[in-house]
Task: structure prediction
Amino acid sequence: METIDLPNEAKICKNQKGIKYAYFDYPYWDQQKGYGCHHRLYIGLIEADGSFIPNVYYLSRISQGHPEKPPYYLTKKDRDEYILKLKNIADEPKSSQDLSNEKDIDLYYGSVYLLEQISSLLGIEDDLAECFPDTYKQILSIVYYLVLESHSPLYRFNKWARDHEHPYDSLMASQRISELIIDNITERQKKKFYKLQITRRKEDEYLAYDTTSISSTSKLIKYAKYGRNKDKEKLPQINLAMLTGQQSRLPVYYRVLPGNISDVSTVKKLLKDLNIIGIEKVKLVLDRGFYSADNINLMCRDGHKFILSARRNIALFKNLLKEAKQILSDNKLNIEFYNPKLDIYCIESKIKWQYIEKDDNDQIILRKTIFLNAYICYNKTRGEEERKKFLQSIDEVDTLCKENKELDSKQKSLYKEYFIKQNKSEDTNFDIIIDRNAVLMKSLDYGYFILVSNDEYSAYDVISIYRKKDIIEKVFDNLKDRLEFKRTEVHSNRSLNNKIFVLFISLLYISYIDKKIKENNTYKNKTMDSVFDDLDNIKKCYHDINKYHISEITEKQRKLYEIFSVTPPA
Result:
């Protein structure tokens, strides 16, 4: 693609981050201030190699043959009207001759081809085309860039697009990507996409549901609130709730939540949202943070299957736990409840559950007894590790108390629960000592957990399904680390929601690639970036707009495609 020269009238400035911008300067006299001032009309970026990357406004002038400096300063409204009038070059179909000239080059294709095939395998391109018929190719190009160049900012998109084959096949000025595409995504389109994707997987697997926190540096995001930050950052945050398929390891749905909302209160809205987008029944696996009687009743009412970690301090489960401890303490009996493959003991019980159904005004309209399955599980290895860590924490608090040193918030909580004051004599002096009985009772609980379900799986199938819920943590890690979304700096709710949607689509590809690498013994230690590096040097060599050939493909590259269930390009 032909490079665009920096106009002679342009000047260059550098911001605090070291990024260079090109602009037209318009000096004027400010009568109120009584001295000369300047307006700047920005026209693009200056790359590290000195190349000029024009923005949407300047591209529009070039497309109409007017690259020279405008005679007067244009406000943002003026520029937007100008762009609309001239039909931005980034959105215009190019002529055959233009494409022919641009395609008479070699383009990197190997990694993009892999993503194209994954799009077909997962139905992503078909679903995007149905939901976003006018912009799905632009969205895919942005997503491919985010996946393949995960640590590069969006303003470098055009630099990548010049050298790579990609779905949209044209440049997009990086400063305006959000205005051209992301900000034009509607909630109706997103919900339709969720439905199409979740329908592809919902009947075959359990969906893990969990939340994570994303810190925000913007005060304009209404969902940004102070809450329990899972990354331990002292910033306002939004919460992101997500559903992920356990077998496919693919995210299928997400919601943006206020940062101060608790996990347990999100399930009701999740079920409503699934109903709104037309999903009548799913299988959900949830951890203890989502446990409540209301949530169990709602899932039973709507016909959803679930596996849920129960709270041990509930009377019903306290009794079951006490009985299980007695059985498992008998060495002659406990072996029949042990599964060596999972290294876990499990006792299964049928429990009577008091089912309550309420109307929209929270009034009880139905009360009856139903039966659920409860699984009291004990992992001896995990229990010993947790017990050792707990006793070490108690000993650390005891030492700090004796040395009259300050405790942190977690240590204060342990002090309050597991230490008592003991009088030395009849006077007011006293010692702080460990409450041995409280520590003993707590330590006996370690290693135990309780699952409750309305599905008819065997005990060890239920445990296996529940253990796999951790795959959603890997999805969150990829979002925060690979896609660099630990914090958000956007300044509008709409931009935030739609940016997350594009990242969500990127996670579909990343999760699929991550799964296939881990499933293959030969490549299980290979990184995603090394896969892209190995494939990227396969080129698509154009002779004219309709004729091309693929460069040589090595045996190593063929085997890489095979692990992703992809036929090499031909």
